[in-house]
Amino acid sequence: MPEQQDPHLPRRTFEDLVAEGASVPTEGWDFSWFEGRATEARPSWGYAVSMAERLGRADAVLDVQTGGGEVLDFALARAPRRPPLTVATEGWPPNVAKATALLRPRGIAVVAAPEDDPLPFADGAFDLVVSRHPVRPHWPEIARVLRTGGTYFAQHVGPGSVFELVEHFLGPQPDEVRGARRPDRERADAEAAGLDVVDLRAERLRMEFHDIGAVVHFLRKVVWMVPGFTVEEYEPQLRALHERIRAEGPFVAHSTRHLFEARKP
């Protein structure tokens, strides 16, 4: 449904909505600001709850690319038992600060580590490595820091995710871009690194953007969707999408997600 407003109030202008979306802080993975303005269906497997169950059975845990630490914090609060050791990594400085503030009270260290660098831990240091929406899984490093019998449990962004929105701004994308993050390719890469894939499930999920402010905030927050996005650079596309939402209702896109579980033999 289109955004609901009091009929006695003036409609919010394109400029007002864009200015609001451009002003909201983007650090962390808290998406509560979007409530009432954008929606996304959630995968059926319930990643954070499933992660909590696995935390309860682990002794040494690494959360790779933790963002603002929100998912790890949620899962730890619901784990039947706290792992004796839990560490997180994050590469973006604003998120490092946010995750540290959130997780330090739980006794969890957040290590600043660029996403493409080797993980700064010893071989076989962890029996569980988790990650939600890593930019890209560093399979040889994941395999290296896992103990024999250890598990990698993650939710990945899949191929062509939210490409209805991406292609509105960038135009049609080539097959090699649309096909990136394919689950079968990630399975092959994980197996090449010496891991056994024991579960791999994929889903395509409906998203709705109810106003252009939500689109602006989303593209500022999920920076790899439209690299280098700024309001000034993409104002014509933003105006066109604003008018489309006004005329037709929410802009519909689809995210893709896959659940990945692998073990080190």
Automatic annotation (TrEMBL):
Keyword Transferase: yes
Residue ranges constituting the Methyltransferase type domain according to the UniProt record: 62-153
InterPro entries cross-referenced by the UniProt entry: 23S_rRNA_MeTrnsfrase_RlmA (IPR052939), Methyltransf_11 (IPR013216), SAM-dependent_MTases_sf (IPR029063)
Keywords of this entry: Methyltransferase, Transferase
Listed GO biological process terms: methylation
One Gene Ontology term of the molecular function aspect: methyltransferase activity
UniProt xrefs under CDD domains: AdoMet_MTases
Membrane-spanning intervals of the chain: none
PANTHER family: METHYLTRANSFERASE, METHYLTRANSFERASE TYPE 11 DOMAIN-CONTAINING PROTEIN
Protein name: Class I SAM-dependent methyltransferase
